[in-house]
Design a protein that fits this description.
Elements lengths: L2 H4 L9 E4 L2 H7 L11 H7 L5 E4 L8 H4 L18 H9 L3 E5 L4 E6 L2 E5 L5 E2 L5 H11 L1
Antiparallel strand pairs: 1-2, 3-4, 4-5, 5-6
Helix pairs in contact: 5-6
Amino acid sequence: MTTADTNPEYPADAQLVLVSFLSDLNGYWEEWTDADPADLRDGVEANHVHRYGFPEPRLAPVDQSETSPKNTESSDDEAEPPEQFRPIIERLEQNEFTVSYDADEQVIRVEKFGVEHTIDQEGTVGGESGIKNRVKSIADRFL
């Protein structure tokens, strides 16, 4: 199977690039910063860090300042999600979604495969993709 099999916008010979997000690396493999670059792929696999595949044409260079890790520790003033969201967040994380709570908008932000969805306090799911139905079924079940 190629990227083009599931997304015909990309050529069949497009290189697939595997990425892991900093939050996943820090959460599953704290010592990743000490690893030799040649060992990163094996370390990600051995520590069960979530990986996401992107066709190379979809990726673009970023400013070096954007690639430097900022403070990835939770701050004391970071808002906690309401209690009603906790079971949804837990289930989404079990299903390998990246989840955060946006206190300003009072929504859960859910990301997987580079696609973001939101869940508000009424359980309305925003966003478009094939995985929206999975997000909605979890929200409906736990909210």
